[in-house]
Amino acid sequence: MPHTVTATQPTMCLKHGDFHAMDPDCWGATLDWQLAHPHLEGQDARDAYLAAVERQMLDNLVRNS
What we know:
Strand order of the largest sheet: 1-2
């Protein structure tokens, strides 16, 4: 059975440090992050995830400049 990817709403992606429609690998990175941070819940978890994505975005900018 071929692997198909369906479009989703653009979302903050930790794997790529970008805002885009995420594929299964991106969602896997998100799940891995959540499993590594079980002590965070609700809004605290969302805020910490977004902060991690922002750090990745900044790292990408520094690396590419």
